């Protein structure tokens, strides 16, 4: 049986991605989707891709830069460019950058099939492609999550257990540890990956609006409700809803959420008719929910409903061995974004990053590396790291004595060697007798 070709689709328009995927699936191709160039780069590092299909006009990094990158690092991979703004100049540009063909939106299924077959026909060898020019970053297939530490492996073991079922999951960890990445890994690595993933930050939505945003409302339910509207739960039907900062949810929201978990149904504000839902709930918090329960600001029964499975995301200070991998990842990410190339780091700069305690966790590390990439000329050195970081390094305690202690020992040693003769001791020490007397005091 012939292997299905793997085609990577890159477009910031989700509707176009879905259309391309449907068409290509019906042609018996296997597809991967990316809504940005950055996401595409991660897929390219970990996946065998036979054809790139990319849009040109995208935010942050455009498709031409991706085509150029692929031409440099995957020289045998054909590249098909799709755009809604055709011009002779654009056509010439993408061909110069190494594109195999150029397809204009809107296009028919037949036109797409012809362009794909033509692009695949340009392959110079029957091999798959992986980056040969950069150090590979170990991956476990979980999106942006990387690491080899024991603490990190415990997290991935739980993800493996829950990714293919609907168990409610509570993700706990300090701010900046990557709780949303864990939630996305659970969703996108499992059998429900094709269904919606809806992320909601309960701390970012005003309390008086959160209930309506989560559960929806009917026309006339309150002032400003001019139409019937679904909430985030309805949008997540058959998929996953991620409730970040769940500890900030008000008691009325908690009451409704408890009913959703118990009855598997949701009722819009202003309606008496419940709607059945099939939704996996993943909640996250950096708060101590047990403390909130004691304060009567969080329902104990909701806590038990949410924590069927609990994932404890370790702080970065407990993942020191992962720092090098994370730094490499961020250097690659921002090197491509800001410098159009990969960036390196000196050993002493990396040593400082590994000794720092990282109270802001991975988010703080990413910000530091991002700034350093912007400030450097291809190699990150100590001068590109923030001063406050260098001054707060947690150096190991090797039992060093203070300068005053060392001086005292030396003076005592000299005095002992001259049988207590202060004049001779002062001469050896290079100070006068008055200074020696002051030090002896």
UniProtKB/TrEMBL annotation:
UniProt superkingdom: Bacteria
Residues bearing PTM 4-aspartylphosphate: 55
InterPro entries: AAA+_ATPase (IPR003593), AAA_lid_NorR (IPR058031), CheY-like_superfamily (IPR011006), Homeodomain-like_sf (IPR009057), HTH_Fis (IPR002197), P-loop_NTPase (IPR027417), Sig_transdc_resp-reg_receiver (IPR001789), Sigma_54_int (IPR002078)
Entry keyword set: ATP-binding, DNA-binding, Nucleotide-binding, Phosphoprotein, Transcription, Transcription regulation
Residue ranges occupied by any Sigma-54 factor interaction domain in the UniProt entry: 145-374
UniProt keyword annotation of Zinc-finger present: no
Response regulatory domain: residues covered: 6-120
Protein name, UniProt field: Sigma-54-dependent Fis family transcriptional regulator
Organism, scientific name: Flagellimonas aurea
């Amino acid at each position: 049986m012939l292997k299905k070709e793997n085609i990577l689709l890159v477009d910031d328009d989700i509707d176009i991605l879905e259309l391309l995927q449907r068409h290509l699936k019906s042609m018996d191709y296997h597809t991967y989707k990316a809504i940005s160039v950055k996401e595409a780069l991660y897929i390219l590092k970990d996946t065998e891709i036979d054809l790139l299909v990319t849009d040109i006009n995208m935010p942050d990094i455009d498709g031409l830069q991706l085509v150029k990158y692929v031409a440099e690092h995957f020289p045998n991979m054909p590249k098909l460019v799709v755009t809604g703004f055709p011009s002779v100049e654009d056509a010439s540009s993408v061909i110069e950058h190494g594109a195999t063909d150029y397809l204009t939106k809107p296009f028919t299924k037949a036109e797409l099939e012809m362009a794909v077959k033509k692009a695949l026909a340009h392959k110079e060898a029957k091999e798959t492609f992986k980056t040969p020019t950069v150090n590979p970053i170990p991956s476990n297939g979980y999106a942006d999550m990387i690491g080899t530490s024991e603490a990190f492996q415990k997290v991935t073991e739980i993800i493996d257990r829950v990714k293919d079922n609907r168990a409610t999951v509570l993700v706990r960890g300090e701010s900046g540890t990557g709780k949303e990445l864990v939630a996305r890994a659970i969703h996108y690595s499992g059998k429900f990956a094709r269904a919606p993933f809806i992320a909601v930050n309960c701390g970012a939505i005003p309390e008086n609006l959160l209930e309506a945003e989560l559960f929806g409302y009917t026309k006339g339910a309150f002032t400003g409700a001019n139409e019937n509207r679904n909430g985030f739960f309805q949008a997540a039907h058959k998929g996953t809803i991620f409730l970040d900062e769940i500890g900030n949810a008000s008691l009325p929201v908690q009451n409704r959420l408890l009913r959703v978990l118990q009855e598997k149904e949701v009722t819009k504000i202003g309606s008496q008719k419940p709607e059945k839902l099939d939704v996996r709930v993943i909640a996250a918090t950096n708060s101590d929910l047990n403390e909130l329960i004691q304060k009567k600001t969080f329902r104990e029964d909701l806590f038990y409903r949410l924590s069927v499975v609990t994932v404890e995301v370790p702080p970065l200070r407990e993942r020191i061995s992962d720092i090098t991998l994370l730094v490499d990842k961020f250097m690659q990410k921002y090197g491509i974004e800001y410098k159009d190339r990969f960036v390196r780091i000196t050993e002493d700069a990396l040593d400082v990053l590994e000794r720092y305690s990282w109270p802001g966790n991975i988010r703080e590390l990413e910000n530091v590396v991002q700034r350093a990439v912007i400030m450097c000329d291809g190699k990150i050195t100590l001068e590109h790291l923030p001063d406050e970081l260098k001054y707060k390094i947690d150096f190991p305690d090797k039992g060093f004595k203070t300068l005053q202690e060392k001086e005292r020992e030396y003076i005592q040693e000299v005095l002992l060697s001259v049988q207590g003769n202060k004049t001779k001791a002062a001469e050896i020490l290079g100070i006068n007798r008055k200074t020696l007397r002051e030090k002896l005091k």
